[in-house]
Automatic annotation (TrEMBL):
GO biological process: regulation of cilium movement
Highest rank taxon of the organism: Eukaryota
Protein name: Uncharacterized protein
Organism: Calcidiscus leptoporus
InterPro entries: CFAP298
Amino acid sequence: ITRTVEDAKALVSERQVQMKVPATAKALEDAISNIRGAVMIAYPMGLPDYDTVRQILEEREELEGNAAGLQVLDVDQTSLWCFNKELQRVKLLSEYVGKNDKTKVVAKLQKKGAGAPQREPIVSEDEQKAMIAFYHKKQQEAEKLALEEEDAYLNSSW
């Protein structure tokens, strides 16, 4: 069961986002059915009706008053934001993006009336580290050149 759950968590992990691997509905449904199958193998007599795992797998758990309830957003109280605009439910995404299939869209869910969510950084962390390293190297080269005299080549033996 643990390995099956870890495989399912890997599907929705932040690492998948960094590797730019999309999470498809089919893959998520397969992961849930794998967990359901692992639970059936581990508990052939079935779980009791009050068990949380059974309630989650049957989609009848109570989310009110616990931490998991904070992550679930109500459809009527949620808005989708993209391009620093709130997307309207009646319009298609192609009306905002265009017909290009290769366009990458980063959208965020936000509670209605909460305003626009925080913007995505323009430069990723790895790119920023590479830029800082390059700048630091150039700065060291400039300091090294400033210490040398301009006519140092005149003192050479050739």
